[in-house]
Amino acid sequence: MAVYTDITDSELAAFLADYDLGTLHAFKGIAEGVENSNFLVETDRARLILTLYERRVAETDLPFFIGLMSHLAQNGFPSPVPQTDRQGRNLKRLRDRPAALVSFLDGFSVREPLEVHCWQAGYGLAQLHLAAQSFSMSRTNSLGLAAWRPLFAPHAQAAEGLEQGLSARVSNDLDDLAKTWPSGLPEGVIHADLFPDNVFFLEDRFVAAIDFYFACSDMLAYDLAICLNAWCHDATGRLDLVRARAMVEGYQSLRTLSDSEVAALPALARGAAMRFFLTRLADWGAARPGALVRPKDPLEYARKLDFHRAHHAAPAAYGL
Amino acid sequence: MAVYTDITDSELAAFLADYDLGTLHAFKGIAEGVENSNFLVETDRARLILTLYERRVAETDLPFFIGLMSHLAQNGFPSPVPQTDRQGRNLKRLRDRPAALVSFLDGFSVREPLEVHCWQAGYGLAQLHLAAQSFSMSRTNSLGLAAWRPLFAPHAQAAEGLEQGLSARVSNDLDDLAKTWPSGLPEGVIHADLFPDNVFFLEDRFVAAIDFYFACSDMLAYDLAICLNAWCHDATGRLDLVRARAMVEGYQSLRTLSDSEVAALPALARGAAMRFFLTRLADWGAARPGALVRPKDPLEYARKLDFHRAHHAAPAAYGL
């Protein structure tokens, strides 16, 4: 939600001169993404988003992320299209940071998803999984099961400060998850962060997904579990069955889940809640007082963890 | 440089429904203006900027600012055009804040103005002064001479902390300015904040001015003096004669300065430097540690004050 690195018009004009994209007409910093600096760039021929990657994105991962967006776009999935300069490069440098130029996409995200949006998001997620099947690169999920306990340890006390008893509950959850974590399910490239703010709609139809900077190789059904957490819970942490059923149905309209995947969804959803609880907990502690970008509340995901802890053995609670 | 208040798509759609501007296609928060929250809004028919006015803009002043933009646009000056809803209102409310929708303008600001940009900015400023002549509303300059001493008093110690001796120098400057401040010069509506980031260029031609939220009634030549400070000094605080002459010449290509105005320019430039030094000094003290929006350095204007203190009696130093 900010521009961390500003650029000048002359820097941008020089940068654009490497591409066949016309001459600069307008550019504005946009408040999108908490991780990078983003600019809307307009030329006489194209509308683009310029991203300068700040330190939270590992530079060695960028060829995977940008390659994935290119691959998806070439396979009919509406992701931003990375632009290549005259030398065929789609990843360059600006202000001593990695920088990429991608197409601007119409559409806008919904802040309060309805049933229709959940169906469409499920459909879009399956479309992404299918389009990514032929992508040849892979990337380990650095925020998977193995990362959770080391991520929690330095913040266990902070969790206890947020809510009495939370630290012990999370620690028990981590034990449970280690014992019950599914394996052998279909894998592929997953978005891993397809929250409502990363999906664009037009007239309630899924028209684009953005922000592929957590994409990695993992179980496909885990991606759906992340989306169930992100789209289908109410403010108290309860899963809303109407929206959850719509999302799974939208997903299955393109890709049928196996029985094992369906059976694993509650455990995967519990793990997904853990993953976002932990990164939010870590960001919460690292926030500078008074900073304009407020970290997201870890307790939102503590409530979702409560739900999954209570119901993970009851498929009916998930509408399954 | 931030979005202070976020809005949801449903709020925006409901807001847009009051206008004949088509259906929502995209919206993004933009990092423009340190005072308000701004969004790029696109419909199937129009490209717009939505502004939510935060607490630093007095709500009672908004009819003047928005009326001025409408008047300027109607008189051929390229300012954003305030949009009226079906009931004829150009100022509404959203998220419990005053809100206005104006046209999106092509072009981009230059961070390092060259001679040509200074000529064009001078030309644009004169165009603004002429187009505003027939505007019937007026607004006292709340940051004029009378405001400076009260603005300085609570921060005199902070100034001394920034640089030894600065407090006494500024205090003497304030005495000088009170004694020598020009009067009887042509007055009208001035922009009062036409810095490079508030001017858009296309192919080095002035194509738009934005951010009218300091506009007020004052001496026209004072507006030119503000621009000389904002566009024509080098990093050490020295006035660059090439750029200063270009700006005055660009201005006079549309509106000839009287002999009294020319003679008053050094004193007015000294006052303009004081005005921006003082507000930057106040903002510097009020900044929260760690905030993402860094206040501008008051010492940049302390150096310009040094220049004017040394040269205000020597018109040649101003290229006059």
Q: How does this structure look, described?
A:
The structure is a homodimer of 320-residue chains. Chain A has 320 residues and is an alpha+beta fold. Chain A has two domains: 9-103, Phosphorylase Kinase, domain 1, CATH 3.30.200.20; 115-318, Aminoglycoside 3'-phosphotransferase, Chain: A, domain 2 (Alpha-Beta Complex). Chain A contains ten helices and nine strands. Chain A has helices at residues 9-16, 62-74, 115-132, 145-152, 156-162, 166-180, 220-231, 241-252, 259-286, 298-311; strands at residues 24-30, 37-43, 47-52, 92-94, 97-103, 187-190, 199-202, 205-209, 216-219. In chain A, α4 (145-152) runs parallel beside α9 and α7 packs across α9. The A-B interface holds A 1-4, 8-10, 23-32, 40, 42, 105-112, 200, 202-203, 288-293 and B 1-4, 8-10, 23-32, 40, 42, 105-112, 200-203, 288-293.
